């Protein structure tokens, strides 16, 4: 038996950390441009009339969602996996040549996919299904990348020293399986050039038609949120919050209940995207009911995390990383309460198709997902680079600027969405529609402007984060891993 | 049991997979078993309409416009009869959308004309003051991809049995037939003939000239598609 602690290999984690920051900034920059385009349509011509086709809202919008989901978030999942995985399984990446090679291959193919996706979406090569816009050649590439991720997970598990899988690993496994299943089934398509011998080689047609296509798409769309935005981020908080705070997870039983509950319930809830549509009524009802049930497992994890801080709440005042993570947990609870409320049929009748939904997505992604990824990478940086965090006060400033950004974002979108919904349905005393559609557009201008300001603030925070990470890697005070075991390394 | 699972990753993964796959089986399969039958009067898309649908998809029009009328008085007042499942029988992919930044387009063919669409795509705010829709001027120059539209027609006809060249029952008791040309050249000729009828109602001289020269700009195909939405 060796006595000295394991030396973990962070070569791959570093690559993904870099990718997370770059794609986070790119994805949110596009988001900010989109927000300003909605408030001031002339921004659509930001690069002039000649390039309008490529800077137009409609071309950038899928690029924004995909860059944030598959760029920023998935990179964050990878970055944390290649850090957390080694540590909780007590094994170093360096011990397996095979894993190192496949991990590098995975990263290289991912870069290729990023280039292909950006290029094709700007050119308008899309299947139009939300978060599944890629045509079949890219889909195949993504499947290969994902299989390689599976090899990483199960490969490392295969050579582990720690026999029992820590909670975070449960969630990473679920992420892998969930996305694999959803992605495969939703992207079933027939390449038209192969069948007909004519037309664009990359073009395909969906295997499913109409109502069935919608059903599969939202089974995918909702659960891409589950296994991209919920499950892996829970994996992160289960590792990073106890580690950073030096507290044990509050309740193992609650972790179990929340995990298996989430696995079982989440998939049923996709139907809430299709309320009052042409899918069978019983499915709509199931979607609605299970969405409400979903509060239980979601709040289970969040409460477990908040209770982990029991007796240690003073850390919130002194450690900005704890602040990020506690707020992330709070936003998770908030978002998983808001979602079920929107899934109640009568509320959905008002909220669906409006900006309230956009607000909901963003309080989840900005408040929960991004805050957690930001905190995770800031926790990792000193351990990966063996240097102290460059600036604690910059972290604090970033926290407050981004929090203000999120609050402006979701409050303005709530007001916008509810206003819009109420105006669409308003009838005058003779039973005629009270407003024309354009009235419901122009009234939103102030809220769209506030949203754009909020988004811009959040985006500024991303730069502070990137700067802090860069300076930590290059100019932070050197520090040994052993010094970091018990204390959180903070510069004054 | 859970402690045991946590020490046996393979069985753990199987247990997770079964748990998550369960809901999909229960919720998705029944609807697939009774794949939606087209309602009377629902026709497959012609080559030009399908090329226009591709323009619609290429520019993510579905990011801001829905094609799903919900069964509420306010929506049927504004857009027309609420959506029926069978009306989407030939929609691959579906284009219901998830956000209405602009109005629903499910039945836009009933209340907007070729002329209106033409002006609106050129300068939306000039036609609807206060509109935040950007202009789509490149559609007046780019050529529609008739080849790919034809490729898709052939594919859905072969693989999914979409009834081209067959009589389709209409609401007035008669039938209609949507033609699938036997060759790519035939499809191009059919699409051009249809494009000429659309261009006749348009004002843009460049577009008229292009169509007269045998070319089909994207805007013509798009309008053919929008006009077919009824």
TrEMBL record, chain A:
Its main location: membrane. Its cofactor is heme b; Cu(2+). It comes from the Bacteria. It is an enzyme of class 7 (translocase). InterPro entries: Cyt_c_oxase-like_su1_dom, Cyt_c_oxase-like_su1_sf, Cyt_C_Oxase_1, Cyt_c_Oxase_su1_BS, Cyt_c_oxidase_cbb3_su1. Signal peptide: none annotated. Keywords: Cell membrane, Copper, Electron transport, Heme, Iron, Membrane, Metal-binding, Respiratory chain, Translocase, Transmembrane, Transmembrane helix, Transport. Pathway: Energy metabolism; oxidative phosphorylation. The chain crosses the membrane at residues 12-36, 67-84, 105-126, 138-158, 165-185, 218-241, 248-269, 289-309, 321-337, 357-378, 399-424, 444-467. It holds the Pfam family COX1. Its EC number is 7.1.1.9. It is a multi-pass membrane protein. Residues 12-492 form the Cytochrome oxidase subunit I profile domain. It is found in: Cell membrane. It catalyses: 4 Fe(II)-[cytochrome c] + O2 + 8 H(+)(in) = 4 Fe(III)-[cytochrome c] + 2 H2O + 4 H(+)(out). The keyword Nuclease does not apply. Belongs to the heme-copper respiratory oxidase family. This is cytochrome-c oxidase. It comes from Sulfurimonas diazotrophicus. The lineage of its organism: Bacteria, Pseudomonadati, Campylobacterota, Epsilonproteobacteria, Campylobacterales. The gene is ccoN.
TrEMBL record, chain B:
It comes from the Bacteria. InterPro entries: Cyt_c-like_dom, Cyt_c-like_dom_sf, Cyt_c_oxidase_monohaem-su/FixO. Residues 47-218 form the Cytochrome c domain. Keywords: Heme, Iron, Metal-binding. Transmembrane segments: none annotated. It comes from Sulfurimonas diazotrophicus. This is Cytochrome-c oxidase, cbb3-type subunit II. NCBIfam families: ccoO, PRK14487.1.
């Amino acid at each position: 038996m060796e006595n000295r602690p394991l030396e973990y290999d962070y070569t791959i984690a570093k690559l993904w950390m870099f990718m997370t920051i770059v794609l986070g900034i790119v994805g949110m920059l596009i988001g900010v441009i989109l927000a300003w385009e909605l408030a001031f349509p002339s921004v659509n011509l930001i690069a002039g009339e000649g390039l309008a086709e490529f800077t137009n809202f409609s071309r950038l919008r899928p690029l924004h969602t995909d860059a944030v989901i598959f760029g920023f978030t998935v990179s964050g999942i990878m970055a944390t996996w290649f850090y957390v995985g080694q540590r909780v399984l007590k094994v170093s990446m360096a011990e397996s040549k095979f894993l190192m090679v496949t991990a590098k291959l995975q990263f290289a193919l991912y870069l290729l996919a990023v280039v292909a996706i950006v290029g094709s979406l700007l050119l308008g090569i899309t299947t139009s299904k939300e978060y599944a816009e890629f045509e079949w050649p890219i889909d195949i590439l993504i499947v290969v990348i994902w299989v390689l991720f599976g090899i990483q997970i199960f490969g490392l598990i295969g050579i582990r020293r720690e026999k029992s899988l820590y909670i975070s690993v449960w969630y990473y496994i679920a992420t892998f399986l969930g996305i694999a299943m959803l992605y495969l089934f939703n992207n079933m398509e027939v390449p038209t050039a192969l069948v007909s011998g004519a037309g664009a080689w990359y073009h395909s047609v969906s295997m499913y038609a109409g109502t069935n296509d919608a059903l599969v798409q939202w089974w995918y769309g909702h659960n891409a949120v589950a296994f991209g935005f919920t499950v892996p981020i829970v994996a992160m908080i289960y590792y990073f919050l106890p580690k950073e705070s030096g507290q044990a997870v509050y309740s193992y039983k609650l972790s179990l209940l929340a995990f298996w509950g989430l696995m079982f319930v989440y998939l049923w809830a996709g139907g809430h995207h299709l309320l009052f549509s042409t899918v069978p009524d019983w499915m709509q009802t199931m979607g609605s009911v299970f969405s409400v049930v979903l509060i239980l497992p979601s709040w289970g994890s969040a409460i477990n995390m908040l209770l982990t801080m029991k007796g240690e709440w003073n850390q919130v005042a002194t450690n900005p990383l704890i602040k990020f993570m506690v707020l992330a947990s709070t936003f998770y609870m908030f978002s998983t309460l808001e979602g079920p409320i929107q899934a109640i049929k009568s509320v959905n009748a008002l909220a669906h198709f409006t900006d309230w939904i956009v607000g909901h997505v963003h309080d989840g992604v900005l408040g929960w997902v991004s805050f957690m990824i930001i905190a995770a990478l800031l926790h990792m940086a000193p351990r990966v680079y063996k240097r102290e965090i460059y600036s604690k006060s910059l972290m604090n400033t970033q926290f407050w600027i981004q929090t203000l950004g999120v609050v402006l974002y979701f409050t303005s979108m709530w007001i916008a969405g509810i206003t819009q919904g109420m105006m669409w349905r308003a009838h005058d005393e003779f039973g005629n529609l009270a407003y024309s559609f354009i009235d419901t557009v122009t009234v939103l201008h102030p809220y769209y402007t506030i949203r754009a300001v909020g988004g811009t603030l959040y985006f500024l925070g991303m730069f502070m984060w990137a700067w802090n990470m860069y300076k930590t890697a290059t100019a932070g005070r050197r520090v040994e891993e052993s010094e970091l075991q018990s204390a959180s390394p903070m510069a004054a | 049991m859970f402690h045991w699972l946590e020490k046996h990753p393979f069985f753990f993964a199987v247990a997770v997979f079964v748990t998550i796959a369960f809901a999909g089986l229960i919720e998705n399969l029944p609807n697939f078993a009774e794949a939606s039958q087209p309602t009377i009067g629902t026709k497959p898309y012609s080559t030009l309409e399908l090329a226009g649908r591709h323009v619609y998809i290429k520019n993510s029009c579905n990011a801001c416009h829905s094609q799903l009328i919900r069964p509420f008085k306010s929506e049927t007042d504004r857009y027309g009869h609420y959506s029926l499942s069978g009306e989407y029988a030939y929609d691959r992919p579906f284009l219901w959308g998830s956000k209405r930044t602009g109005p629903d387009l499910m039945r836009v063919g009933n209340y907007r004309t070729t002329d209106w669409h033409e002006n609106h795509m050129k300068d939306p705010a000039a036609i609807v003051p206060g509109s935040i829709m950007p202009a789509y001027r490149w559609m007046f120059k780019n050529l529609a991809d008739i080849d790919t539209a034809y490729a898709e027609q052939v594919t859905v006809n072969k693989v999914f049995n979409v009834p081209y060249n067959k009589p389709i029952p209409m609401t007035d008791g008669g039938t209609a037939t949507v033609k699938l040309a036997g060759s790519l050249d035939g499809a191009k000729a059919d699409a051009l003939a249809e494009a000429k009828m659309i261009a006749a109602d348009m004002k843009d001289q460049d577009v008229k000239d292009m169509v007269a020269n045998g070319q089909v700009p994207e805007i013509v195909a798009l309008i053919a598609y929008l006009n077919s939405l009824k």
